[in-house]
Amino acid sequence: MGEIAPPRFERLWTVQDVSEYLAVPVPTVYSWRNSGMGPPARRIGKRLRYRPEDVRDWVASLSTEIPL
Predict the structure, then answer these.
(1) How many structural domains compose the chain?
(2) Which of 10, 16, 22, 39 is deepest in the core (most CB within 10 A)?
(3) Which uninterrupted H or E stretch holds 35?
(4) E strand or H helix that includes residue 31
(5) Is 30 among the domain residues?
(6) For 3-42, what is each residue's pLDDT tens digit?
């Protein structure tokens, strides 16, 4: 019988990672967080962490098609 592979998890992103992915300054990510506008984050200890899929879903929710 074959072995079952453990699930693969992407590492959680830091504020810096989110900043780089979205091409915005780090203070913008914090500002969004403080105003409740940005992607959902989790606090792990004293640090904010983001699930990559949450950031991608948040971006997709903002996207609107521009008619040609």
Answers:
(1) 1
(2) 39
(3) helix 26-35
(4) helix 26-35
(5) yes
(6) 776 667 779 999 999 999 999 999 999 999 999 999 999 9
Beta strands in 5-62 (DSSP E): 42-44, 47-49
The answer to whether residue 46 sits within a structural domain is: yes
**CA–CA distance, 31 with 57 (Å, rounded to integer):** 19
Q: What is the pTM of this model?
A: 0.78
* Domain that includes residue 26, residue range: 15-57
Token pair of 61 as six digits: 């929710």
User: d(Cα 55, Cα 57) in Å, to the nearest integer?
Assistant: 5
21 domain residue, yes or no: yes
The answer to whether residue 48 sits within a structural domain is: yes
Would strands 42-44 and 47-49 be described as parallel, antiparallel, or unpaired?
antiparallel
Q: Of 25, 64, 19, nearest to 39 (Cα)?
A: 19
